[in-house]
Write a structure and sequence with these properties.
Layout (H helix, E strand, L loop, with lengths): L14 H11 L19 H11 L9 H12 L2
């Protein structure tokens, strides 16, 4: 089981949240991960180059996203 808390600021962390976690998970082992929300995602130059290359591919050999995922699953067991 997992629970996600989305806070607009670290200042919102209160004893109420900790009490809710304790009540939910009781004496079970837990892992707490804290990560910063980054809303401004920017493509790197490398990412843009890859996307530009993909745009230049021949449409006759185009793979749908479903086909791509199937091939990746088959090859890498994703």
């Amino acid at each position: 089981m997992y629970t996600t808390y989305h806070l607009t600021s670290a200042q919102e962390i209160s004893s109420d949240i900790l009490d809710a976690i304790k009540a939910t998970f009781k004496s079970k082992p837990i892992t707490i991960i804290v990560e910063e929300d980054i809303e401004d995602f920017e493509l790197t130059t490398e990412m843009k180059i890859v996307l530009d290359e993909r745009l230049q591919e021949d449409e006759k050999t185009y793979l749908t996203s479903d086909d791509s995922i199937k091939q990746l699953n088959k090859k890498y067991g994703l």
